[in-house]
Give the backbone structure.
Amino acid sequence: MQSVAAALDRLGELAASPTVSRLASAFEAAGHELALVGGPVRDAFLGRPVNDLDFTTDATPDEILAIVKPIAEAHWDIGRAFGTIGAKIAGETVEITTYRADAYDGASRKPEVVFGSSLEDDLTRRDFTVNALALRLPKLELVDPSGGVEDLVARVLRTPAAPEQSFGDDPLRMLRAARFSAQLDFSVEPATAQAMTELSAEIDRISAERVRDELSKLLLTRAPRGGIRLLVDSGLAERVLPELPALSLERDEHHRHKDVYEHSLTVLEQAIEYEIERGVLDSPDLIVRLAALLHDIGKPPTRRFEPGGAVSFHHHDVVGAKLARKRLRALRFDNDTVDAVSRLIELHLRFFGYTDGAWTDSAVRRYVRDAGDQLERLHILARADVTTRNRRKADQLAFAYDDLEERIAVLAEEEELAAVRPELDGQQIMAILGVSPGPVVGEAYKHLLEVRLDEGPIGEDAATERLLAWWAARTAPTDA
């Protein structure tokens, strides 16, 4: 947290930039108010990078367009019905929104948009006091009607209005509280946290798409653990991601299995570290983080108490993959994300068989083939899934995975492992066997792929011999 004076100096420098000064002059000349609002002002106080320039004004959307057209390289309607106009000015993208005084009926998923006339009223309808800060332009007057600066100093999230009213107006703000607590490393003020618990059922009014987007933003923060805890402790996770609180299994009387919920949070944290450390993926990576958080959701429905006090979770990988697919679809994630996350969960246990005995080259090829384009993510998930406090065991598993990755690299160089396929394609199979397109071609291709996985490259001539031998056995008459 920077001092107020330092933050104002930083805001003054921002106001002097070509984009902001050009906008401020244009609105002043047109006789309208303009203020930099929300995140940019907050982040100036926190010493964080200011990436998005958001403005608010008393001008209507049509008036905003008339003002920005002469000075913008481009402009567009982001949400004219909600009062927002986007523009590119001096090379920077900005959003300008008319003062709002939204009305909510307490039942629908969307507010009735009502434009306001006062900056102070606009600020008090925002989600949290730390986001209800504005800098009037061009005179550089800080506007803070709800004590947002004090809350920034205290590193606390609090709603400008009573939390019951704020969350009742827009229940998505409860998820935003979890996201901002993680993103900013802030605590949630007790009355606000209590309201989140009391009103958790109100989140059912929010569309799956908006819930998905807010959960994604939370997971994409640098340290999402605290925000996830807030969702679980408040009861919100029970409404939007019930598989997560279900991981808090009661331990058996002998304490012979881990707290799966805590384990999953640790796996998520470690996956983020590997994601950043390895540097292969674009970071942050939502698929890695979803897979890490959900990888064990198949454990609660598969838990069994065995004779002698042991606890088993047979096939929790397969069950978990199905549960993840169902939940992510309900949250309206795109098909590619759903497929990738469920595939990673299905495969996340595969590596642990590597330490039971030496894998053949065939087993390594199959591991790569089954992972497909998710191989790097599977590397991260498998490594992150090691949370044992037994240092010797942890080192053993780490060394084993190092060895597996080295073998994959060697085979990849020798065999173009990333594109494992038979030496004969469908057209060649049909020509050799004299058959037309149909199921038999797929069966033949699958047989040759198994040969390729078992033995590595064998060349077209040998592949042809194997194909003809398979065909002869398949078409040979059987004894009546």
Notes: The longest strand covers residues 92-98. The mean pLDDT is 89. The first helix runs from residue 4 to 15. The chain has 23 helices and eleven strands.
